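Hello support,

Our group uses your service weekly, and this is the first time we've seen a run hang past the timeout. The protein is Cupin. I'm not sure whether the cause is the sequence or the server load. Input pasted verbatim:
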Amino acid sequence: MAEADASIFAAMPAVQERVASDAAALDALLHGARTPFVIRGLARDWPLVQAGLVSARAARAYLLERARPVPFSVALGEPGKDGRLFYSDDMAMNFREARGKLADIFGGFDANESRADAPAIYLGSIDVPAHFTTVAAENTLALGQREAIVSLWIGTSTRIAAHNDFPDNLAVCAAGRRRFTLFPPEQFANLHLGPIDNTPAGRAVSMVDFHAPDPDRHPRFTEALGTAQVAVLEPGDALFIPSMWWHHVEGLAPFNILMNYWWRDTPRWLGQPQDALNHAILSIRDLPVEDKAIWRALFDHYVFENSPEVTDHIPEGARGILDPLDPAAAGRLRSFLLRTLSK
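Update from on-call engineer: The timeout came from a worker crash unrelated to the input. Re-ran successfully.
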């Protein structure tokens, strides 16, 4: 993969490093955390990490021995490119997607291991329990009461555009090296985001090429860089990425594995904020300016401020969804929305 101008990363401050000597210390670090941090060597004893330190093929063999007989999805980039999985000039994707047996996909890694013009090969967001037998149990972190989704990300030297995720994220470099460039949530406008509905992997991404920023096309990116932090992870290192923080991710070695844990501190039965944004685009964005101002005030009143004056004048027991939601009320509201959206 073509290396970026090192100065763009050298000028960034490093993500703060923390220490977690045991499960209780890790739980304390994660509780209520709103800024990113790195924990060096948190997973150094994982069998997958130890296999990767032997060789890339040893790491692949470890996973292959534990793979379930199910199809795996893989993205394949064009040979001889720089590993950037992104849009093509016509805003289609510059990679193709396929499904196959893990043994065949790993055979592609083996066959291209020493080729200078090798294609990018990337398996993203692999549900670990659904695709492997004992990998999650043998390579685990004590996350307390958090109900985490455990995923694997396996690839050659690749570049994944800056994006964000709603859940909190603890990402562990299991093999190779990863560089994360992080930006606070409020930097979304300065990252020059692409489409919401046509994305490489379900989330809007920055259109900026971090290896060759174009100040004419993306003038606000300079402001975003003023807030950026960078973390380079070695095998066994972990990075906490808080909810909604933007992160640009690079696999710096010829072969890289990341295992990550996603969780929400809010109940699973609550809705997805992205769904609300999409619905607001459908129903509010193109209204006349005067009407949008009214709806902005209503959103402030019912959602963002949500002060006691919203309900104090309504008898208790008659406030409906204006009361704090519980699973039953959330279910009724979801059913109502489905009915209205289907009309």
